[in-house]
Design a protein that fits this description.
The protein has 21 helices and 7 strands. It is an alpha+beta fold and 553 residues long. A hairpin with a 2-residue loop joins β6 and β7.
Length: 553
């Protein structure tokens, strides 16, 4: 047993020693390679411009991808050398107040401080060298071990395709293994063939570009169908003209379809915002019959809660949204309960006075926020995981923040539906909304239900404010932009009906987004309002009217 343990210990020791020696060997090899590159790079500081190209060739052969940052810096004019020892450095930052600069080593990338502009001198470069550098950078990117780097390199080449680019891409095509990169290379080669002298090759290239929605493809095909002042095609070969027209029609059909899908998505995105803003109002309006004009200010308080949370945790932007959601729900829920207990419970059965009272509360909340945070808008930073867009294809992109808010609104809706259908509070709320007197006769405390319902609706309004803080600036007037739309959604869907609110929010959102390109934003809102007025004339109780004896009466 002892011998076995001793053997295992020796084996582990030998294994660790082997790994250590290999890592030391690799580090020494890397240091040796950097030293050789540095010696070759020093030639850039003393040779004539006409002799620089061979030096670049040596550096490329010696370092491969390691010299890519140096070539890129040299191309943009940020490659310098230290006058004292001729070592190459890349200027990272220049201080405008004094002569100091921050540089990094051109080979190791290590940041170096303590240099001034007078201690450095720029490595000269002319237009011929810039062309050489662009070619070498493209070639190094095409031979990168990372497929995404190779694909990005081909994408950049699409902007300017010449004979040299075609040669590089043809050579890369022979050894490429990634299907996505191969597809990009084939696209670039087809675009290059549009300038060929062989009409058969041009026709074959046009045929391969059918339906490709890359902007560069459409821009390259349009000149083939241009006409002169007399209405004659500039292209002499009619077959090429007709082929280009057919390809452009197919591209335009695809772009129209993707535009349609994008408008539908933006409609759902707007609908999700309207759903979050209106769903809390739908509950309070349906149960209590209260026209709460302060609902928009509760949304505003939720947005400011997100702002305060982010200010308290400035180094945790990525998770601040998750902290702000429950915080906004609690804060706005408590404010809602205070409003109901302090004002609304004394005005039951007097809708006009309730409307005026809640309007006054909205003004008080706005002024309170102006006093605490100032009238200026505040910006809530968007987490990195919510930034950018999901690029489905060159003709269709979906922004992450709107996509997440759409998903979030549906989750809130399902959670609220679960509360209303599966909890005692939901049962009491439904009983009171359908027949208050009967519910009270059965022992349900309607005052408690009113307070909890108003608090629940106000809390959801606060959650809506957190979502809106990721789409727009946070200010005292934020809620005023959504209060009218919220009431329209509630009335259109049916007072107190959650499914009606969902259908109404998405319907109005999609309708607005399809009207905006035709009529403009303001006129589209007017059209929505006119549509709802006409609809209510036909169906006064909305799409999904409440059921129950009190509701029917």
């Amino acid at each position: 047993m002892f011998l076995a343990v001793n053997f295992v210990s020796r084996y582990q020791l030998c294994r660790w020693l082997f790994v250590f020696l290999v890592s030391i060997s690799i580090s020494m090899e890397a240091m040796s390679s950097n030293a050789e590159l540095a010696e070759i790079g020093k030639q850039l500081t003393r040779v004539k411009l006409s002799k620089v190209a061979p030096v670049l060739d040596k550096m490329e052969q010696q370092g491969g991808e390691e010299v890519l940052p140096l070539f890129e810096a040299m191309l943009v004019g940020s490659l310098y050398f230290v006058k004292a020892d001729k070592s190459l450095v890349i200027v990272v930052e220049q201080n405008p107040d004094d002569d100091s600069v921050v540089v990094s080593s051109a080979f190791s990338g290590e940041e170096i401080l303590g240099f001034t502009k007078t201690e450095l001198k720029k490595v000269r470069v002319n237009n011929k060298l810039r062309r050489i550098l662009r070619s070498k950078i493209a070639e190094l990117n095409l031979t990168s071990s990372d497929p995404s780097v190779r694909e990005s390199a081909v994408q950049n080449m699409l902007k300017k395709i010449d004979e040299e680019t075609i040669v590089l891409l043809s050579r890369a095509r022979l050894v490429e293994t990634s299907s996505a990169v191969i597809e990009k290379i084939d696209l670039a080669l087809s675009i290059g063939l549009l300038d060929s002298n062989d009409d058969e090759q041009r026709l074959a290239a046009i045929d391969s570009l059918r339906g490709v929605v890359e902007p560069i493809v459409r821009n390259r095909l349009l000149p083939l169908i241009e006409k002169d002042s007399q209405g004659n095609y500039l292209e002499q070969n009619k077959a090429i003209v007709y082929a280009a027209q057919s390809a452009l029609q197919q591209i335009d059909r695809k772009l129209y379809f993707y535009g349609f899908v994008e408008r539908v998505f933006f409609g759902f995105s707007l609908g999700s915002v309207l759903l979050l803003a209106a769903i809390g109002l739908s509950i309070t309006f349906g149960v209590m019959g209260v026209i709460n004009m302060a609902h928009g200010e509760l949304i505003m308080l939720g947005a400011y809660t997100a702002y305060v949370i982010q200010q308290q945790f400035p180094n945790h932007i990525e998770i601040s949204v998750f902290l702000a959601i429950p915080a906004a729900f609690v804060v706005c829920g408590l404010v809602g309960v205070a409003i109901e207990r302090g004002v609304i419970q004394f005005l039951k059965g007097r809708p006009l006075e309730t409307l005026l009272a809640t309007f006054g509360i909205s003004l008080i909340l706005q002024q309170t926020v102006r006093t605490i945070f100032s009238p200026l808008n505040r910006q809530v930073s968007t987490p990195e995981w919510m930034s950018g867009a999901l690029q489905i294809n060159p003709g269709l992109a979906i922004t992450y923040n709107r996509l997440y808010i759409l998903i979030f609104s549906l989750l809130v809706f399902l959670l609220l539906l679960l509360v209303m259908k599966r909890t005692a509070l939901g049962l009491y709320v439904r009983a009171v909304s359908q027949n208050r007197d009967m519910a009270m006769a059965l022992g349900i405390r309607s005052n408690w239900v009113d307070a909890m319902t108003f608090g629940l609706g106000s809390g959801i309004a606060g959650v809506a404010g957190v979502a809106l803080s990721q789409l727009t600036n946070v200010g005292p007037n934020l809620g005023q932009s959504y209060i009218i739309d919220s009431f329209m959604v509630v009335v259109f869907g049916g007072v107190g009906n959650l499914w009606g609110t969902l259908v109404a929010a998405f319907s109005l959102g999609i309708f607005s987004k399809f009207m905006e390109p035709v009529t403009g934003t303001v006129l589209a809102q007017i059209c929505v309002l006119v549509f709802i007025v006409l609809f209510i004339q036909k169906r006064p109780k909305g799409l999904f009217p409440q059921q129950g004896r009190a509701a029917e009466s």
